[in-house]
Design goal:
The chain is an alpha/beta fold. The chain has one domain: HUPs (Rossmann fold). The protein contains nine helices and five strands; from the N terminus they run ααβαβααβαβαβαα. A five-stranded parallel beta sheet has the order 3-2-1-4-5, with helices on both faces. α3 links the parallel β1 and β2. The longest helix has 44 residues.
Length: 227
């Protein structure tokens, strides 16, 4: 059984009570909520490597209304927008994490092939919340979307990007991985060199102590030939 008005308003912690991937069903549900007098807020993003900045942003978004709808980019869309190495976490993991947040009421999916404004046109939120760091959102976009939104709110980044942003975390992981790999290679080279030098020293010492030593006997007793 999918989400109901009751499960959405109770805002529990289960994915099945919040996730509406079908846009037709999403449109129907949002219409019911609006008719009941609830203010609908929409925001969207990748939500990769969830951190405190994301949490602050979403809590702030929820404060603009009664029901918070969050669009989550599919893995394919995230790669298209962020690069081939993203997302760091898969869609299933990201959506399950967001489902556990009580201040989110509805979760849905954004995918490749949909219109850039597709989700916004379906939900037609009373308040659309955008991040000021979204460089792809222009003044022309804002004017075009005014037809579908009651108002548009632009939020500042809710955490110092250099310390806890997703990009910063990935950068630190890469740097740490490169450092660890370099250290492992260095240790391996040192071991190989030590083994090589150790073997050469042992042979040299043996030659010095026993310069005329013949190879060890095979154990077979040799007898002089009879004349």
């Amino acid at each position: 059984m999918g989400p109901t008005v009751k499960s959405i308003l109770e805002s529990g912690f289960k994915l099945e009570g919040k996730y509406i991937p079908d846009y037709g069903e999403l449109e129907r549900m949002v219409k019911l909520l609006k008719e009941s007098g609830y203010t609908i807020v929409l925001t969207q993003g990748v939500w990769d490597m969830y951190h405190v900045g994301h949490s602050r942003y979403l809590i702030k978004a929820r404060s603009f209304g009664d029901v918070l709808v969050v669009g989550i980019d599919s893995d394919e869309l995230a790669r298209q927008m962020k690069g081939e190495d993203r997302p760091f976490e898969g869609f299933d993991e990201r959506i399950e994490l967001l489902a556990g947040l009580s201040f989110i009421n509805i979760l849905t999916r954004r995918d490749v092939g949909q219109h850039h404004y597709g989700l916004i046109k379906i939900v037609r939120p009373d308040v659309l919340v955008m991040s000021k760091t979204t460089s792809s959102f222009t003044e022309d976009d804002k004017e075009a979307l005014e037809e579908y939104c009651g108002q548009i709110e632009h939020l500042e980044a809710q955490a110092p990007p250099a310390s806890i942003s997703t990009t910063a975390k990935i950068r630190r992981l890469r740097q740490g991985g490169a450092k660890e790999l370099g250290e492992r290679i260095s240790r391996a080279i040192e071991r190989e060199l030590a083994d090589y030098l150790g073997g050469s020293d042992a042979k040299n010492q043996s030659d010095c102590l026993h310069p005329h030593t013949q190879p060890a006997s095979s154990g077979v007793v040799q007898t002089a030939p009879r004349e």
